[in-house]
Amino acid sequence: MRVRVLRGSIVVSILLAGLLGTALTAWGQEADLDEFKNNLAPNVGSPEQAIDRMLEAAKLKPGETLYDLGCGDARILIAAAKRYKVKGVGIEISSRLAKVAAANVADEGLDKRIKIIHGDFMRVDLSPANVVTLYLATSANDTLRPNLEHYLKPNTRVVSYDYPIAGWTPIATSATEGHYGDTHTIYLYEVPNSINKK
Question: Which SS3 state, helix, strand or coil, does residue 31 take?
Fold first, then answer.
């Protein structure tokens, strides 16, 4: 009886894995899930009004460099490059989204000012950034924080939508409206002033 149950469980597992692979392919994603093993947050696009407030909070200056970690379709980078004349670097772990982001950048004629990296932002040198934007969960911010503290130079601004960075103190916060009229918080940090000394 135990052998039958075990075999049944294996068959169910195989069927579920096949269905998952089919579902991902149907959505245009690769069936190989290895590229998502280090994914720290689901892809949820930032609302337009949130992007505006995030970029305002960052106080971007022409010629600065903005890094968007988990850039999705590159909407933050494109808005920043067009409105504030900055350079942008987007890092996206999903190959599908990285291709979408690169295509969107090309469609806007911003190839020379925005670079899209298909990769894990935990393995990227962030030191060239003047501003870093985040829309990650609190646990992802916790994982990322040592990298921010290691790489970011003084006066670099970090703008996080919705989720604070534990162990850091924001220099400013502001409220914005979400997709459904709910209120969200934007956290502005500055290195090293926001980093709590132990």
Answer: coil
Asked if residues 88 and 81 have their Cβ atoms less than 8 Å apart, the reply is yes
Whether 193 contacts 166, CB under 8 Å: no
164-191 pLDDT tens trace: 999 999 999 999 876 666 788 999 999 9
What's the token pair of residue 141? Answer: 């911010």
> Which residues in 60-90 are b (16+ Cβ under 10 Å) and which e?
beeebbbbbbbbbbbbbbbbbbeebebbbbb
Q: What is the pLDDT of residues 106-133, one digit of tens each?
A: 999 999 999 999 999 999 999 999 999 9
- Within 10 angstroms of residue 107's Cβ, the number of other Cβ atoms is 10
How far, in whole angstroms, is CA 17 from its chain's centroid? 27
Token pair recorded at residue 128: 């060239």
The answer to whether the beta carbons of residues 172 and 188 sit under 8 Å apart is yes
DSSP secondary structure letter of residue 47: P
Q: For 174-181, which contacts have Cβ atoms below 8 Å and span 24 or more sequence positions?
A: 174/53, 174/57, 176/47, 176/49, 176/50, 176/53, 177/47, 177/49, 177/50, 178/47, 178/50, 179/47
Decide: helix, strand or coil at residue 20.
helix
Whole-angstrom distance, CA of residue 33 vs CA of residue 172: 38
What gap in Å lies between CA 133 and CA 77, rounded to an integer? 9
Are 89 and 66 within 8 A, CB to CB? yes
